[in-house]
TrEMBL record:
Pfam families: DnaJ (PF00226), DnaJ_C (PF01556)
MF term (GO), any: Hsp70 protein binding
Protein name per the record: Molecular chaperone DnaJ
Residue stretches making up the J domain: 1-38
ZnF (CR-type) ranges: 81-152
Gene Ontology biological process terms, A to Z: protein folding
The CR-type domain, residue ranges: 81-152
Domain of life: Eukaryota
Alphabetized UniProt keyword annotations: Metal-binding, Repeat, Zinc, Zinc-finger
Protein's UniProt keywords contain Iron: no
Length: 202
Protein backbone atom coordinates (compact mmCIF):
# COMPACT_ATOMS: atom_id res chain seq x y z
CA UNK A 1 0.00 0.00 0.00
CA UNK A 2 2.84 2.40 0.80
CA UNK A 3 4.52 1.80 -2.58
CA UNK A 4 1.23 2.24 -4.48
CA UNK A 5 0.04 5.32 -2.59
CA UNK A 6 -0.59 8.23 -5.03
CA UNK A 7 1.25 10.64 -2.71
CA UNK A 8 4.36 8.48 -3.16
CA UNK A 9 4.09 8.45 -6.95
CA UNK A 10 2.07 5.24 -7.13
CA UNK A 11 -0.94 4.39 -9.26
CA UNK A 12 -4.32 5.35 -7.75
CA UNK A 13 -6.14 2.34 -9.21
CA UNK A 14 -3.47 -0.06 -7.95
CA UNK A 15 -3.72 1.54 -4.50
CA UNK A 16 -7.51 1.02 -4.55
CA UNK A 17 -7.10 -2.66 -5.45
CA UNK A 18 -4.51 -3.23 -2.72
CA UNK A 19 -6.76 -1.53 -0.17
CA UNK A 20 -9.74 -3.60 -1.34
CA UNK A 21 -7.76 -6.83 -1.01
CA UNK A 22 -6.63 -5.89 2.50
CA UNK A 23 -10.20 -5.10 3.54
CA UNK A 24 -11.45 -8.43 2.20
CA UNK A 25 -8.69 -10.53 3.80
CA UNK A 26 -9.03 -8.84 7.19
CA UNK A 27 -12.81 -9.43 7.37
CA UNK A 28 -13.80 -13.06 7.99
CA UNK A 29 -17.37 -12.69 6.71
CA UNK A 30 -16.33 -10.80 3.60
CA UNK A 31 -13.59 -13.37 2.92
CA UNK A 32 -16.14 -16.19 3.29
CA UNK A 33 -18.50 -14.48 0.81
CA UNK A 34 -15.61 -14.07 -1.63
CA UNK A 35 -14.69 -17.77 -1.31
CA UNK A 36 -18.32 -18.75 -1.95
CA UNK A 37 -19.38 -16.29 -4.66
CA UNK A 38 -16.20 -14.59 -5.92
CA UNK A 39 -15.94 -10.93 -6.93
CA UNK A 40 -19.66 -10.66 -7.73
CA UNK A 41 -20.68 -10.87 -4.06
CA UNK A 42 -18.08 -8.30 -3.00
CA UNK A 43 -19.16 -5.97 -5.80
CA UNK A 44 -22.76 -6.21 -4.58
CA UNK A 45 -21.77 -5.51 -0.97
CA UNK A 46 -19.59 -2.54 -1.95
CA UNK A 47 -22.36 -1.14 -4.15
CA UNK A 48 -24.79 -1.56 -1.27
CA UNK A 49 -22.44 0.23 1.15
CA UNK A 50 -21.69 3.06 -1.28
CA UNK A 51 -25.37 3.45 -2.08
CA UNK A 52 -26.35 3.66 1.59
CA UNK A 53 -23.78 6.41 2.16
CA UNK A 54 -25.16 8.33 -0.82
CA UNK A 55 -28.73 8.03 0.40
CA UNK A 56 -29.50 4.84 -1.51
CA UNK A 57 -30.33 6.45 -4.87
CA UNK A 58 -27.37 4.90 -6.67
CA UNK A 59 -28.10 1.45 -5.21
CA UNK A 60 -31.72 1.55 -6.36
CA UNK A 61 -30.68 2.19 -9.97
CA UNK A 62 -28.04 -0.52 -10.31
CA UNK A 63 -29.24 -4.06 -11.09
CA UNK A 64 -28.41 -6.90 -8.74
CA UNK A 65 -26.06 -9.50 -10.19
CA UNK A 66 -27.91 -12.79 -10.86
CA UNK A 67 -27.06 -15.90 -8.86
CA UNK A 68 -25.66 -18.65 -11.06
CA UNK A 69 -26.04 -22.24 -9.88
CA UNK A 70 -25.56 -25.61 -11.55
CA UNK A 71 -28.11 -28.31 -10.70
CA UNK A 72 -28.62 -31.92 -11.71
CA UNK A 73 -32.09 -33.29 -12.39
CA UNK A 74 -33.32 -36.78 -13.28
CA UNK A 75 -33.04 -37.64 -16.96
CA UNK A 76 -36.82 -38.00 -17.14
CA UNK A 77 -37.25 -34.34 -16.12
CA UNK A 78 -34.97 -33.11 -18.91
CA UNK A 79 -36.78 -35.32 -21.40
CA UNK A 80 -40.39 -34.49 -20.50
CA UNK A 81 -40.10 -31.47 -18.21
CA UNK A 82 -41.24 -31.23 -14.62
CA UNK A 83 -40.73 -29.63 -11.22
CA UNK A 84 -37.43 -30.00 -9.37
CA UNK A 85 -36.50 -28.85 -5.84
CA UNK A 86 -32.95 -27.83 -4.92
CA UNK A 87 -30.94 -25.66 -2.50
CA UNK A 88 -30.10 -22.15 -3.72
CA UNK A 89 -27.36 -20.11 -1.95
CA UNK A 90 -28.22 -16.40 -1.98
CA UNK A 91 -27.91 -13.19 0.03
CA UNK A 92 -30.71 -11.73 2.13
CA UNK A 93 -30.98 -8.64 4.40
CA UNK A 94 -29.49 -9.25 7.84
CA UNK A 95 -32.09 -10.50 10.31
CA UNK A 96 -30.48 -8.58 13.19
CA UNK A 97 -30.04 -5.09 11.70
CA UNK A 98 -32.61 -5.35 8.86
CA UNK A 99 -29.91 -4.38 6.39
CA UNK A 100 -28.96 -1.00 7.90
CA UNK A 101 -25.49 -2.42 8.75
CA UNK A 102 -25.11 -0.72 12.14
CA UNK A 103 -26.52 -0.63 15.66
CA UNK A 104 -26.82 2.20 18.17
CA UNK A 105 -23.61 3.82 19.41
CA UNK A 106 -20.46 5.26 17.84
CA UNK A 107 -17.39 3.39 16.64
CA UNK A 108 -14.81 3.06 19.41
CA UNK A 109 -11.86 2.99 17.00
CA UNK A 110 -12.48 6.37 15.32
CA UNK A 111 -14.84 7.82 17.96
CA UNK A 112 -17.53 8.43 15.40
CA UNK A 113 -15.38 10.33 12.90
CA UNK A 114 -15.31 7.58 10.28
CA UNK A 115 -11.61 8.18 9.59
CA UNK A 116 -8.29 7.32 11.16
CA UNK A 117 -4.78 8.71 10.70
CA UNK A 118 -2.22 6.26 9.31
CA UNK A 119 1.50 7.00 9.19
CA UNK A 120 3.32 6.17 5.93
CA UNK A 121 6.82 7.14 6.99
CA UNK A 122 6.82 10.95 7.15
CA UNK A 123 3.30 11.10 5.68
CA UNK A 124 0.17 11.27 7.83
CA UNK A 125 -2.75 10.05 5.74
CA UNK A 126 -6.44 10.12 6.62
CA UNK A 127 -8.00 6.77 5.69
CA UNK A 128 -11.42 5.25 6.14
CA UNK A 129 -11.78 3.56 9.51
CA UNK A 130 -11.50 -0.21 9.01
CA UNK A 131 -13.63 -1.05 12.03
CA UNK A 132 -16.72 0.94 11.01
CA UNK A 133 -15.84 1.36 7.29
CA UNK A 134 -16.39 5.09 7.42
CA UNK A 135 -19.85 5.10 8.97
CA UNK A 136 -18.73 6.30 12.39
CA UNK A 137 -21.22 3.86 13.94
CA UNK A 138 -20.96 0.49 15.65
CA UNK A 139 -21.40 -2.16 13.00
CA UNK A 140 -23.83 -5.04 13.39
CA UNK A 141 -21.99 -8.09 14.71
CA UNK A 142 -24.36 -10.58 13.12
CA UNK A 143 -23.56 -9.57 9.54
CA UNK A 144 -20.24 -7.83 10.21
CA UNK A 145 -21.71 -4.53 9.03
CA UNK A 146 -22.46 -5.81 5.52
CA UNK A 147 -26.23 -5.62 5.96
CA UNK A 148 -26.68 -9.05 4.36
CA UNK A 149 -26.46 -12.71 5.31
CA UNK A 150 -26.12 -15.81 3.20
CA UNK A 151 -28.89 -18.38 3.22
CA UNK A 152 -29.53 -21.68 1.49
CA UNK A 153 -33.14 -21.64 0.40
CA UNK A 154 -35.15 -24.62 -0.75
CA UNK A 155 -36.52 -23.58 -4.14
CA UNK A 156 -38.78 -25.42 -6.59
CA UNK A 157 -38.47 -24.68 -10.29
CA UNK A 158 -40.36 -25.83 -13.36
CA UNK A 159 -37.78 -27.33 -15.73
CA UNK A 160 -38.84 -27.35 -19.39
CA UNK A 161 -37.87 -30.22 -21.71
CA UNK A 162 -34.49 -29.56 -23.25
CA UNK A 163 -30.85 -30.56 -23.60
CA UNK A 164 -28.42 -31.06 -20.76
CA UNK A 165 -26.74 -27.71 -20.07
CA UNK A 166 -29.81 -25.57 -20.79
CA UNK A 167 -30.26 -22.37 -18.76
CA UNK A 168 -33.41 -21.57 -16.81
CA UNK A 169 -33.95 -18.11 -15.30
CA UNK A 170 -35.96 -17.72 -12.10
CA UNK A 171 -37.12 -14.12 -11.80
CA UNK A 172 -36.76 -12.59 -8.35
CA UNK A 173 -35.23 -15.69 -6.75
CA UNK A 174 -31.65 -14.37 -6.53
CA UNK A 175 -29.97 -11.97 -4.10
CA UNK A 176 -32.23 -9.59 -2.17
CA UNK A 177 -30.28 -6.57 -0.95
CA UNK A 178 -31.64 -3.73 1.20
CA UNK A 179 -33.07 -0.94 -0.94
CA UNK A 180 -32.62 -2.93 -4.16
CA UNK A 181 -34.90 -4.89 -6.43
CA UNK A 182 -34.67 -8.66 -6.13
CA UNK A 183 -32.17 -10.27 -8.47
CA UNK A 184 -32.66 -13.35 -10.62
CA UNK A 185 -31.29 -16.86 -10.31
CA UNK A 186 -29.90 -18.53 -13.43
CA UNK A 187 -29.84 -22.33 -13.39
CA UNK A 188 -27.56 -24.44 -15.56
CA UNK A 189 -29.48 -27.71 -15.74
CA UNK A 190 -27.67 -30.99 -16.39
CA UNK A 191 -28.83 -34.61 -16.23
CA UNK A 192 -28.12 -36.95 -13.37
CA UNK A 193 -26.35 -40.16 -14.42
CA UNK A 194 -28.82 -42.85 -15.47
CA UNK A 195 -28.10 -46.56 -15.26
CA UNK A 196 -29.68 -47.36 -18.64
CA UNK A 197 -30.18 -44.22 -20.74
CA UNK A 198 -28.42 -41.02 -21.78
CA UNK A 199 -29.53 -37.91 -23.65
CA UNK A 200 -28.70 -37.99 -27.35
CA UNK A 201 -26.79 -35.03 -28.77
CA UNK A 202 -29.05 -32.47 -30.45
Amino acid sequence: ARECHPDKGGDAEQFRLVTRAHTMLSDERKRALYDEHGDAALDEIEALTDGSRAGGSQAMEEPVQPVGVRIQVPLEVLHAGGKHTFLLPRLRPCSACSGVQSVSGVCSACRGRGQQTVDFGPLHVQVTCEQCRGTGRRLCRTCGGHGVQQEEAEVSAEIPPGPSGQRVTLRGEGHRLPGRQEGDAVLVVTAEPHERFALADA
